[in-house]
Write a structure and sequence with these properties.
The complex is a heterodimer. By secondary structure, chain A is of the alpha/beta class. Chain A has a single domain (31-60, 73-232), classed as 3-Layer(aba) Sandwich (Rossmann fold). Helix content of chain A is 36%, strand content 28%. Chain A has helices at 44-51, 74-84, 100-110, 115-128, 144-156, 174-190, 201-204, 226-232, and strands at residues 2-13, 16-28, 33-37, 59-64, 67-68, 85-88, 162-166, 193-198, 209-214, 217-223. In chain A, a hairpin with a 2-residue loop joins strand 9 (209-214) and strand 10 (217-223). In chain A, helix 3 (100-110) crosses helix 4 (115-128). Chain A is globular, with a radius of gyration of 18 Å. The two termini of chain A are 27 Å apart. The relative contact order of chain A is 0.19. Chain B folds into two domains: 3-52 and 257-389, no CATH class; 71-241, no CATH class. Chain B has helices at residues 3-16, 18-56, 76-85, 120-124, 137-141, 151-158, 200-206, 225-240, 251-294, 296-304, 309-344, 354-380, 384-389; strands at residues 60-65, 90-105, 108-117, 129-132, 146-149, 167-170, 173-181, 195-199, 214-219, 246-250. In chain B, strands 2-3-8-5-7-6 form a six-stranded mixed barrel. In chain B, strand 6 and strand 7 (173-181) form a beta hairpin. The chains are: A alpha/beta, B alpha+beta. At the A-B interface, helix 2 and helix 3 of A face helix 1, helix 10, helix 11 and helix 13 of B.
Chain lengths: 233, 391
């Protein structure tokens, strides 16, 4: 699913060259649930941006779902983001002036799907995250957990192969956190590939694999044992 | 993403910020509204002047003789002969002497203007009689002391009652009233209704002036009126040997002059319109730039979930277009309302100009494109990661 080879992202500041990612190689297979963790400054946000096709690498190769995207231009990346990736952000990133349903319809609009079908699919996506009663609520009328579920519905609505979550439970209370993580587990069980970027070990524990980053390099990769996963939640 | 979708987004965004959208539109509303009103005013006043002039007829040619730089003169008989000789060009001729007179009926006096003329005057000026008769040629031959009154005098001196057959004193001389003119200007004091008409021969005596300094001709048709004017000029030049001694005014030429004045007026108005819409456009650009930076995060979210650059560009451009388009329509409504009101309160007649409405609307859309493009382009060039990080 994700093949990252010798990938670097560098920032030049005067004479200094700062490597946010330093010749990193990561492979993530289909149906995997991977957590990428690391302290701030470890390069995990940069990695997330590159995996999410929001940013391009300086060097190296990145292929997503067998599409080599490292040299894509803005429009091509936009299309990849639209069809291949579902984003879930820490701050939910819902458009405040649109209702839950309208927010979920957005990716469908950009995918060129006409209004009737859009409506049906967005409704189904919201129902699948248990928000069928909240279709016409504005984000400000929803709790944090509900807003994040709208964001998940939006990420899922075009049925992308990869779900990319950046600190998805960072702004949530522990009850909502459990709900959101359960949704992730269910989705993974259904076959979605999920990559979660977090600094929270309890979130990382529900993944099948943890990738630790430090100073833009791989520090440690570990498999999470299945029964440890079940006992932790 | 379809255009329809972009329109829906734009409407939603405008409705979400009603007050701001309205204030943004205000520049365009006032610009378009004032253009429509100004054009209507210009066209209305031109129309009322043109109407008055064409009431006199485009066949009318006026000759004024000052005798400057010349000591010869033409007389009435010469010009009458000339008119008959040029019957294919000239249908009628009427000489005129004018003066101010005091009218008196029993104890009531009234100051008015007198016109001494001949039978053809009423034909040339298309003036009708409401009762009695107008002057006829035999009145001139016998220097009859008869008079035809304008409606103002009937109203002021006879309280509107039929004065035909009664006597009136003009500068102390007794005249018999034979006719009353039709009302043309609501019988107001000093208007075209505040006049009396007597035979020209009688008038020359009464005013103690034998010279006739004004003639009116009527061309056989509007088409030959210019040629007729030239023919008159040539004839007069033969007598006076100086172009300073007389002036020939052709009504159809005056209408042409009026037309070109209207054209100039429209150009000036167009300039003012362009400036006001430019100012409106700058206002729109300003607000759109604020809107783009306010909505940077939203732009980032839209980009993250798949919006392409042109989707964002289109969204903001169409929003600017909608603002100026709606502004343009409201401006046209406002302008037409003002046009209606100036007509209703009799300032000038209401003239609605569809061409200018279409033009004003087109220009407001153009303003939307021109001044929306920069902010929209700025929005579309944002990098998704920067836009998402924006607080």
């Amino acid at each position: 699913m994700i093949r990252i080879n010798e990938l670097s992202k560098k920032y030049e500041m005067g004479d200094n060259v700062l490597y946010a990612l330093d010749h990193l190689s990561i492979h993530i297979k289909e149906h995997e649930f991977v957590a990428i963790i690391g302290p701030s400054g470890s390069g995990k946000s940069t990695l997330m941006n590159i995996i999410g096709c929001l940013d391009s690498p300086s060097e190296g190769k990145y292929s997503l779902n067998n599409i080599e995207v490292s040299k894509f231009n803005g429009n091509e990346l936009a299309e990849i983001r639209n069809f291949q990736i579902g984003f879930i952000f820490q701050g939910y990133n819902l458009v405040k002036k649109l209702t839950a349903l309208e927010n979920v319809e957005l990716p469908l609009i950009y995918a060129g799907i006409h209004a009737k079908e859009r409506h049906v699919r967005a409704k189904a996506a919201l129902e699948s995250v248990g928000l069928s009663e909240r279709l016409h609520h504005m984000p400000s009328e929803l709790s944090g957990g509900q807003q994040q579920r709208v964001a998940i519905a939006r990420a899922l609505v075009l049925d992308p192969p990869l779900l990319l979550a950046d600190e998805p439970t960072g702004n949530l209370d522990s009850k909502s956190e459990v709900e959101i993580l359960n949704i992730f587990k269910e989705l993974n069980a259904k076959g979605n590939t999920i990559v979660v970027i977090t600094h929270d070990d309890s979130v990382a524990k529900i993944a099948n694999r943890i990738i630790r980053l430090k100073d833009g390099k791989l520090e440690q990769e570990s498999e999470v044992i299945e029964d440890e996963l079940t006992t932790s939640v | 993403m379809s255009l329809l979708q972009a329109y829906k987004m734009a409407i939603k965004s405008i409705m979400n910020n009603k007050v701001r959208s309205f204030l943004t539109m205000l520049g365009v509303i006032i610009g378009v509204g004032s253009v429509i009103t100004a054009v209507a005013f210009a066209k209305g006043s031109t129309k009322s002047i043109t109407d008055q002039l064409s009431e006199l007829g485009t066949e009318l040619i006026t000759v004024n003789i000052s005798m400057r730089n010349s000591n010869r003169d033409v007389n009435y008989t010469d010009l009458e002969e000339f008119t008959e000789q040029n019957a294919e060009l000239l249908a009628a001729m009427a000489p005129q002497v004018t003066g101010s007179v005091t009218l008196k009926n029993s104890d009531v006096t009234w100051s008015s203007s007198l016109i001494g003329t001949t039978e053809d005057y009423s034909k040339i000026n298309k003036k009708g009689i409401s009762s009695g008769r107008f002057l006829i040629d035999i009145d001139n031959t016998y220097r009859q002391k008869i008079v035809v009154l304008g409606s103002t005098i009937v109203k002021e001196l006879y309280k509107g009652q039929n004065p035909i057959g009664k006597n009136i004193k003009i500068n102390g001389n007794v005249f018999k009233i034979v006719g009353v003119m039709e009302e043309t200007a609501s019988s107001e004091k000093g208007s075209n209704d505040d006049r009396i008409f007597i035979p020209i021969t009688t008038a020359q005596r009464l005013l103690k002036s034998s010279r006739i300094n004004s003639y009116q001709f009527m061309a056989t048709s509007a088409e030959v009126s210019e040629l007729a004017g030239t023919t008159i000029e040539n004839y007069l030049f033969k007598t006076y040997k100086s172009t300073d001694a007389y002036r020939v005014t052709n009504m159809s030429e005056m209408l042409d002059t009026l037309d070109s004045m209207t054209g100039t007026m429209m150009t000036v108005l167009g300039g003012i319109a362009a400036i006001s819409l430019l100012v409106g456009g700058i206002g729109i650009m300003n607000i759109m730039l604020v809107s783009v930076s306010e909505r940077t995060r939203e732009i980032g979210i839209r980009m993250a979930i798949g919006a392409k650059r042109r989707n964002i560009l289109l969204q903001f451009l169409i929003e600017a277009l909608m603002v100026t388009g709606i502004g343009g329509i409201l401006g046209i409504i406002l302008g037409n309302l003002a046009t209606f009101l100036i007509g209703k309160f009799d300032v000038v007649p209401s003239v609605y100009s569809v061409e200018w409405m279409v033009l004003a609307f087109g220009i407001s859309l153009l303003v939307g494109v021109v001044f929306g493009l920069f902010p929209a382009n700025k929005a579309s060039k944002l990098k998704p990661i920067d836009a998402l990080r924006y607080e």
